[in-house]
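Our preliminary data section would be incomplete without showing what the modeling component actually yields. Below, a chain of 110 amino acids is followed by its predicted structure, encoded as tokens that our downstream tools consume directly.
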Amino acid sequence: MDARPWEMYTRSPLRAGFAHPVGQTVVEAELRAAGLHVEWLHLSGRAGLSLSAVPSGQRALVRKLLLEGLLQQACQWLTLSAHDPDSGWATTSRDWRAALRDGEVTITQW
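Predicted structure:
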């Protein structure tokens, strides 16, 4: 069989009363059907934080922005789910993103 369509796979343990709606085999089939290979597949029942790599020439600027408040803002946003992990807010798909475009930081959340 061909290699999996991801570089890394992890699965977090779930709290009682929670279940993943699909498993890795379902996701694998869809990735293969689409001809995709992803860096990672993580099945989670909890909040996560992902920091993407940046071009080396922008590392210092992005690091400065993270240290001067962006990382703190992201963590504060994550605490909303930590305070009540079974709430409607925490169990609904949510996303917080900060992006640097043309020298300006934009934050989107939903």
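The chain has a mean pLDDT of 82. The CA atoms of residues 9 and 41 lie 5 Å apart. Preliminary results of this kind motivate Aim 1 of the renewal.
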